Amino acid sequence: MDDYKFLFKVVLVGNAGVGKTCLVRRFTQGLFPPGQGATIGVDFMIKTVEVENEKVKLQIWDTAGQERFRSITQSYYRSAHALILVYDISCQPTFDCLPDWLREIEEYASTKVLRVLVGNKIDREDREIPTHVGEEFAERNNMYFLETSAKEAENVETLFIQIASDLIKQARNRDVPKYDGITSIDDRTTSVGETNCCSKIQ
Ligand SMILES: Nc1nc2c(ncn2[C@@H]2O[C@H](COP(=O)(O)OP(=O)(O)OP(=O)(O)O)[C@@H](O)[C@H]2O)c(=O)[nH]1
């Protein structure tokens, strides 16, 4: 029953209140939960999807945005295959914190991690960050970019399916040397990082 070809770990990070939990719930359960409380530490959900005729199990880790949980959440970065950095398009401070988040990602995540920038809450009328500003930031920092609405289910499925598809491609490329009986050092998807530090985000 639990047959899947790939297992990928996807971790969401970003300031408190940007909608990380809602994005995960929308994708895994198809709902927009009312009165969602702040995440305490880290939560995770699993969803198996079929991408390119392959069954892919996504283990999605939803981290708390609040500063006081930072040392817990950092420890989840290092084994992530993909990191989704989320900001709220209607809240400038959440965008202004992105460089701090990137520093954190660089310190704790694998250098090979797939990094995706997401501007959430595009259903809101009070936008503060234009699309092109998010796009340029992503481009400068070698990240994929997508704008979403967890509320209206816009681009949420696309976000996770695209990540799964890219990770399959990466995994397949890394698999090639194995067919010759050679294990590439590139097979390592994680890197080592210490987890005690605090950067001022939020
Ligand atoms: N309008 C709108 N509101 C959203 C959207 N996504 C989340 N929200 C709201 O934003 C608030 C915070 O959402 P959460 O998903 O709890 O945010 P979070 O990033 O997980 O917050 P922490 O767990 O504290 O890190 C809630 O009131 C949600 O209803 C969206 O796409 N559109």
Automatic annotation (TrEMBL):
It is found in: Cytoplasmic vesicle, Autophagosome membrane; Golgi apparatus, cis-Golgi network; Golgi apparatus, trans-Golgi network membrane; Lysosome. It is a lipid-anchor. One of its GO terms (molecular function) is GTP binding. Its EC number is 3.6.5.2. The keyword Lipoprotein applies. It catalyses: GTP + H2O = GDP + phosphate + H(+). The keyword Metal-binding applies. One of its GO terms (cellular component) is cytoplasmic vesicle. Its cofactor is Mg(2+). Keywords: Cytoplasm, Cytoplasmic vesicle, Golgi apparatus, GTP-binding, Hydrolase, Lipoprotein, Lysosome, Magnesium, Membrane, Metal-binding, Methylation, Nucleotide-binding, Prenylation. InterPro entries: P-loop_NTPase, Rab, Small_GTP-bd, Small_GTPase. The small GTPases Rab are key regulators of intracellular membrane trafficking, from the formation of transport vesicles to their fusion with membranes. Rabs cycle between an inactive GDP-bound form and an active GTP-bound form that is able to recruit to membranes different sets of downstream effectors directly responsible for vesicle formation, movement, tethering and fusion. RAB30 is required for maintaining the structural integrity of the Golgi apparatus, possibly by mediating interactions with cytoplasmic scaffolding proteins. This is Ras-related protein Rab-30.
